[in-house]
Amino acid sequence: MLFRSCAGRVSIGAWRSRKYVLWSVCLMALIFLLYVQYTPNSMIGLVNDPQQHRTLHSFRRQRQDSYKKPPKVSFIDNDYIRHNNEREENVNELPNKLVPPQHLPGDADVARNSLMRDGFAVDKSQNVEQKYDVPQIVEKSNVARFPEPVVPNKIDRQEDIYAGQAAAEWNGGSYRYNGFGEPVYNHGNRPNYIPKQRVIHLDLKGAPPLVSMYKTLIPWLSQYGATAILMEYEDMFPWEGSLSPLAAKNHYSKEDVREFLSLCKENNLEVIPLVQTFGHLEYALKRPSYSHLREVPEMPQAICPSKNESLMLVKSMIDQMMKLHKGLVRYLHIGCDEVYQLGECEKCRAKVREALFLEHVSKVAKYVRETYKVIPIIWHDMLTHVSEYLMKDYHIGELVEPMVWVYAEDVYRFVQPSTWSKFAEVFPTAWTASAFKGAFGEQSTVPNVQRHLDNNQNWLDVMASESTKFSAGFRGLVLTGWQRHDHFAVLCELIPSALPSLAINLITVSHGYFNETVLPKLYEALKCMQTPKYQTGLNLDSDPFLWDKFSWCFFPGSLIFKSTARLDATKKEVQAYIDKVTLQRAWITDYNRRHNYSSPMRIDEDLEELPSRIHAISLLIRTVKEALSEWYDEWTVGEWIEQHIWPLLDKMETLRKEAESMKLVKTWAARPLPLLPQLEAYGVREPKNKNDARRETPEGRT
Q: Can you give the pTM of this predicted structure?
């Protein structure tokens, strides 16, 4: 009985406390899961391979845990910030073993110290000055794979094998999406890709530099990785004869062009002239003598391909361009992008738009090839929705080489793998085009370096992935630098204010990556002072225009670059002042100025800051004029100041005049003031009997 009684009590107690037991078990399970999640791998029997990331623009190291859970990125540096577009897979996996110095990128000492910080065993016995050849780039796909590290004394016997392995092992990166449906750009795991041709685009449809400045710019471009210039003359070319109306009033002379070409030749830069032959012909079709060739009479953008005179105009332009470049060029870019007005006139409507386009392009391309024995290049966008079968019918793949342009960060969003496959069926090779300026704002004064760097790094990933689809790989990459978005647009970023962006992106595509090992070359290119400020990386999140970072650098045109920072600050100050006195305060509002009705005392209070603001703007105009005059003629200097600074001064002067006009009033009318006449269209009007102080209400008279 005693045993039964005890057993019964224990059973009842256990039954009553069962919920506490269950809670305890759940709590222990949760603690165990947290332990597995956050305990270092070395403590639970898992080993992490230290990984060096070579493409971070801010060089923060990252590591991925290797156990079978969704990868969690952990940063082990607090100095820098990860590249925005890099996802979980964007790292280089290097084995945790001996790493010989010849596999360290860039400066050996910097890279060795970096590897030692990250836990690599580095062979210090090797002489870092000893030269080891990096595996050669495969000519077809232009990729070089960094092989598994080997013992240094074996490197000479195996280096010839590595390039072959690169071609055999790398078949192009797969096109992947992360969990958010965003494409994954694999900066780290791809082979290092360096475009064979690294072309700088100079757009002369606006702000053409003085010819004397090319003596500074061209050697600089050659020194830091450029191999060619894509020269878009437009109306700056010395057109003559019947084409003379096409030339701008300040166009280059023939001697200027010859001097430029000679300078490029001396610096081993190939020149690719660009002449528009279909769309973007505003500079020709705006003139009375050629306005009848427009596809749409009201719009001077595109020529009508069905008129014989259109082809005659194009051939004449090509003839004059090639005559001045005779024997100096291998390629001629014939434009053909953004032909928005196509198939709209009576003759053209009888044909399919795609056929119209291909027929005109094939005629122009045949003329270029047969007459001048050079290769025509066209922009790709008008071919995007044309089938490979139709392109083959017109033999486009035998006539032109496409140049695929995407200036946004997400390249694959605009040119998908299926498009690359289609182009590879038609063309043996292709060009690509990124941007270093002129892509992210029609009125920008300085480029957003972060966005352009993302664009160029992602292009390297895409080229590494897609090059093997083409039988001859890619020709090269063009860094475009648009000066106007079209002939009628205002100016965007000037070349001098974009030199930091150009330096960063040119060095990136010339090395295949951008990290701390190339910083010394960047600071050298921009003539930065040797101070601690220029011994650290870039913070493109907080300083996307690099105004702060390069404030003490003295590259050509640095005064213009610094002036854009001052202009930005002045714009904000002026707008803040105008908002304060016209929107926040109550005496110089739009209402006050329309009715010329305000308090003179309050007006004086609000105008106290105005003289200092006007003086600051006037001083900025004089400073900018002096800085711009080193690079540009009076036309460009005046246009830039009128576009960016004059509106500030005009706003302030208008505000001052209207405020002074209100102060002249000595007596004021009784309220209510007259209503705005334009409000009558909306049913708002003054009472019919103005002398009656009473007003009508829905309830009746009051």
A: 0.74
